[in-house]
What we know:
Structural class: alpha+beta
Number of domains: 2
CATH topology of the largest domain: Alpha-lytic protease prodomain-like
CATH class of the largest domain: Mainly Alpha
CATH superfamily of the largest domain: Cation efflux protein transmembrane domain
Strand content: 5-15%
Helix content: 55-70%
Amino acid sequence: MSPQLRLAVGSIVVGFVVLGLKLLAWQMTGSVALLSDALESLVNVATAIAALIAIRVAAKPADADHPYGHHKAELLSAILEGVMIILAAILILREAWFAFQAPRALDAPLSGLLVNGAAGVLNALWCWVLIRQGRRLRSPALVADGKHLLSDVISSAGVLFGVLLAIETGWAVLDPAMAALVALNILWSGWKVMSHSVSGLLDEAVPEEVMVKVREAISREGEGAVEAHDLRTRHAGRATFIEFHFVVPGSLTVSEAHEMCDRVEAALKKVVPDCVVTIHVEPEHKAKHSGIVVI
């Protein structure tokens, strides 16, 4: 089992444990804010399952129907997570609205808050693992899952503070008010997850700092060439696609030009892991004198 799959399975296990703890905390207190926290954890479980499926699909090799691979499955999963995060926020706002209409005192609050706090600590540890390992493994699905959990951790901290404030002041309306604030935070989190994934589906270019490394590698390792132009990049999950036109002296043999391209491709794979490189070789009269100058 790959590291990505192990982490995805771990997310499902952690999600069920946290969901159980938060549902227990809600039953112990009757707090609508804690119920909102539990509803978000229910979404966590669903998105963790979606991430597992997406990672399995994305790991499939290219085939006749998908010659560029299945990398974008992870981006689709991240968008689904964003949709479900927003759905959770709407459900929480609904519960908060009903609680505003008829606020009620909380039952057995301290023990319930301790249970909820334990769930929050577990979530915090796991989201740190997911974001750190997801970035290392270049997995959008794992990073999105980790960021979703991070929003859950922040929400849980806000819920605990709000419920404690409601207990101390006796203002029962603070409980649904905190649930509404949690929902707004979750909405913002869902929007960020979706916007990042949509850019990948629309073949957005790699960040400028990565593009600088790509240009430097081509310039450094393209000794003997005239220039490189029409550089284009896009990312899809863990894969990065790089293509450009490589202008070489007309006197070069096919073997010599091919060897030069292999050298450049190897350099690019060192600076951009999991990249797929396409190089179109052209004779020197095709030079545009506006691309990458080769050292």
